[in-house]
Every structure is written in C-alpha cells, then in structure tokens.
Design a protein that fits this description.
The protein is α+β, with helices and mostly antiparallel strands. It has two domains: about 160 residues, Jelly Rolls, CATH 2.60.120; about 110 residues, Arc Repressor Mutant, subunit A (Orthogonal Bundle), CATH 1.10.10. The chain is built from ten helices and nine strands. Strands 1-2-8-3-6-9 form a six-stranded antiparallel sheet, with helices on one face. α7 crosses α9, α7 crosses α10 and α8 packs across α9. It is globular, with a radius of gyration of 20 Å. It starts with a strand and ends with a helix.
C-alpha cells in the first residue's frame, strides 16, 4: 500500500505506506526524504550508512534525508516519508523540538520502543493520516502537516522519556546539545573549530565543554564524529579519492583528514577504501 500527497506550488511530497515503500532501497541509496519506519508484530532489518540495524517489533526508527539506506527485510510496516518542502524540520523546530534528537544528531539513529498504549495511539493517528491523504480539499495540505507535526512531537517525547532526557538537571543541556548538533550538521564542511559554534550559541567554548561533559560527550568530539561519518559515507558510496573527499569536507591538506580519520577508525581513508574494494 502506497499513498502520495503532492503540492505542486511548493514541490511538497508526503508518502504513506508499508514495506512496499522501501522496496526502492533494496539497493543502497539516499532516500532524499525524511523517513519514519514503524514495526508492528515483526522485526525489520536495515543497513544505514553501512551499519546493520534491527528494528525490534513495536518500535520506530527515524532517518534523515542524508543517510544511506538499504532495506533488507520487514513486513507489516508503517512508513512515512516527506521532503523539506512538505515539513521543514529546522524551520518548525520551535513547534516540535526534534532537531538534534530525532534528526541531525549526527551519529545517532533513533530507535524507539513502544508500549501497548503508545502503539494504540499511533495506530489511531495513522488511521487519521490515511483518511486525510484520501480527502482532496483546500485544507488537505495543512491538515497533513498538522498530523505530521503531532506524530513528530509524540516521537520526540517518547525518545526523551525512554532515554532519560527529561531529568530537570539535564533539560537545558540537552537543548544546548540539540542546537549544537543542528549547527554542526549545517556547517561541518567549512567550520571545524568549537569557537565558531560557541559564538553562534552565545556561549564560551569552556561552557559548551562543561555542559556536554555531563552528557558524556564533547563539542570537538561531535564535530569530529560528523566529519568522519561524512568521510565514511563518501568512501563507501562514491568514487571520490581520499584527497577529493578531504577537500569537500574543508581540509586544504588531505593529511589532516587522514590523521583525524585514523584516530577515530584506526585506519587511513585510503586503506579503508582498499578494504571496501577487497570486500566487494
């Protein structure tokens, strides 16, 4: 089952369906769409950025439009896909507070387990989604956007609750981490220093470091993780050389990226590429 809403004036796209929506990703590629996958009674298996994932029954997994996806198996799934023109995560973050948690968390792939009651609520919401996508009238687009906002808010609340993010002492720090993640995802190819992001957030680098230390990470670690993730993606899924990738990610000297990559992975970008070629 697949149903698609399009809005020609804005190029907005919303797709609602089951596992048939994921058949296009039997061969790995970027969806170019924000994607939610909800399992019911059966688990699903995916490969995301060359890492295998199993979604347990009664769970939700969220993907950004920039991640590489390969669908391995799954049935009786609920899948939502939409583009920025339908619902811009960053523009609407004041409404849903999901950026940096559900999306743009850099290396985090949110996988949320659902209770029986939570499943029921999402099933009811899905029925309303189906009804609205089949209702062609002048307010259809707004209704569908409202429903997507509600779905995202529910997922964000669940993620925060299940990860323990609602502890009062950490709320402000988590919000700061979300904003930092969003900025890094936007600027990591050109800005590699903590001072740039600290200035954008009206904080000192030391304040950021102290805040993130309580969340078991650091500002520089987040920047470096995002750079290495992008380098891995391009090494795996493009034909670019290590030097070309380094230039694309903002390094004038490829050796700088090579040292950073090796520090994180224990192997150089060139050797990483050679291993991939041998494996294939």
């Amino acid at each position: 089952m697949q149903k698609t809403f399009t809005e020609f004036s804005t190029n907005a796209i919303l797709k609602i369906g089951d596992e048939s929506l994921l058949e296009a990703y039997k061969t790995v590629k970027r969806p170019e769409l924000f994607t939610f996958i909800r399992t019911k009674e059966f688990e699903a298996k995916l490969v995301i950025d060359d890492v295998p994932y199993t979604i347990a029954p009664n769970s939700i997994l969220a993907l950004t439009s920039t991640q590489y996806l390969q669908f391995v198996l799954g049935k009786d799934l609920v899948v939502y896909q939409f583009n920025r023109e339908f619902y811009c995560i960053k523009d609407h973050d004041h409404e849903v507070s999901c950026a940096g948690l559900l999306f743009f968390g850099n290396i985090h792939v949110p996988n949320i387990s659902l209770s029986t009651d939570e499943n029921k609520k999402l099933h009811m919401l899905h029925e309303v989604f189906i009804d609205e996508i089949e209702t062609k009238d002048t307010i259809q687009a707004e209704m569908l956007r409202m429903l997507m906002a509600r779905f995202i808010i529910i997922c964000t609340r669940l993620l925060k609750t299940k990860k323990g993010y609602l502890e009062r002492s950490k709320n402000a720090k988590v919000d700061l981490l979300r904003e930092f993640n969003m900025l890094v995802d936007t600027h990591f190819k050109t800005e590699h220093k903590v001072s740039f992001y600290a200035e954008k957030l009206f904080k000192s680098p030391k304040t950021l470091s102290n805040s993130f230390a309580q969340l078991n990470t650091s500002p520089l670690q987040i920047i470096h993780d995002r750079i290495v993730l992008e380098a891995k993606r391009q090494l795996i899924y493009t034909d670019k050389s290590a030097k070309e990738i380094a230039y694309d990610i903002g390094f004038e000297d490829a050796s700088h990226l090579s040292r950073l990559f090796k520090k994180h992975t224990k192997i150089s970008p060139s050797d990483f590429k050679k291993q991939l070629q041998k494996a294939s």
